[in-house]
Design goal:
This protein has 337 residues and is mainly alpha-helical. It is built from 13 helices and 2 strands.
């Protein structure tokens, strides 16, 4: 009996030893595999960091060239047509355009942007801001605004009515003639949906009226006659702010002054100034250097976001959204824009 027990215990010990050695070998194998996996993960992460760093560097370089180009365009626009240095500036601009195209090509190769994001960036570029600096938050807000339009008939109806009356084409033509981005036509859309008889709410500066919602002081400053009902929230046929042609010419001169001087060629800063009023926005702009590289919408957001009213930020988002949809309606699932 003792011999049997001895043999049984011995066999059990051998079985335990066998299982232990087998498990130990497997543990070493798993550890080796785990180490290989960890090294692969580290290598992948390092590669990802390198790629992201390279893309970010390309983005910064492209943005720098974009704003140098914008600065040259402003200098050319401010020169007298017969100025001797004009040709030199034009030649420099041509060279910079070639450099910018190269950086843009590099960004395009590394980009995974969807079609609607490309349309948003293109609209931002047309409005005078570096498209590669658009934040994810801004893109999300633009998408959200377009989604709201798809749920209602407001956008489609407004555009159809305005187009039938020839408003967008006439406004764009005047903007281009004054050296301004044609996409600033969407200021009138954001303000009133192109309604010539619009009357805004009461403000401490009076009632904004007409398609462009000009305040009495601004209207007078740019040569418009306000009517006898200036202090009342009513349509007034004697108030020139309700005359689409006259009001549009006055608004374009106003926008041009903002664009060329204070906004440093940024359509987005023009929008913010137009909505929030010069006193607020211009005080923020004047705290930044007077160059497109330093005085742009992204810099204002970075340094003064808490001072920019949410309404004003949303106002800019709405105009960029309208410009992006107009540039590529199918990208946003909207037809006939």
């Amino acid at each position: 009996m003792d011999v049997v027990r001895f043999l049984y215990e011995r066999k059990s010990m051998e079985m335990v030893r066998f299982l232990y050695e087998r498990m130990h070998k497997r543990t070493r194998r798993y550890k080796a595999l785990a180490a290989v996996g960890a090294l692969a993960a580290i290598g992948f992460a390092a590669r990802l960091v390198y790629v992201n760093h390279r893309i970010e560097n390309i983005r910064r370089q492209a943005a720098d060239v974009f704003y140098r180009l914008k600065g040259l365009e402003l200098e050319v626009a401010r020169l007298h047509p017969g100025a001797p240095e004009r040709q030199e500036y034009l030649d420099r601009r041509t060279r910079l355009e070639g450099t910018y195209a190269e950086w843009e090509g590099l960004l395009e190769k590394s980009s995974s942007d969807s079609r609607d994001v490309r349309a948003i960036r293109a609209a931002v570029a047309r409005l005078g801001e570096a498209p590669m600096l658009v934040t994810d938050r801004f893109i999300s807000d633009v998408r959200r605004r377009v989604a709201e339009w798809r749920r209602t008939s407001d956008y489609a109806t407004s555009i159809r009515t305005a187009t039938e009356r020839g408003y967008p084409a006439a406004i764009e033509s005047l903007l281009v003639a004054n050296g301004l981005p044609p996409d600033l036509v969407w200021l009138a859309f954001q303000e009133t949906r192109f309604r010539p008889d619009a009357v805004g709410p009461s403000t401490r500066f009076g009632y904004a009226k007409g398609m462009w919602q000009l305040l009495p002081m601004t209207a007078r400053q740019y040569g418009l006659r306000v009517g006898p009902l200036v202090g009342q929230p009513r349509y007034d046929p004697r108030d020139q702010r309700f005359d689409v042609g006259l009001a549009t010419r006055a608004a374009v001169r106003y926008v041009s002054d903002l664009y060329m001087v204070d906004a440093q060629g940024s359509g987005l800063l023009v929008m913010a100034s137009y909505n929030a009023g010069q006193s607020l926005v211009l005080s923020l702009l004047h705290s930044l250097p007077a160059t497109p590289r330093d005085r742009n919408f992204w810099q204002v957001l970075a340094h003064h976001r808490d001072e920019i009213p949410d309404e004003t930020y949303g106002y800019v988002v709405g105009i960029v959204a309208a410009a992006a949809v107009a540039g590529d309606p199918p990208a946003f699932g909207i037809a006939g824009s």
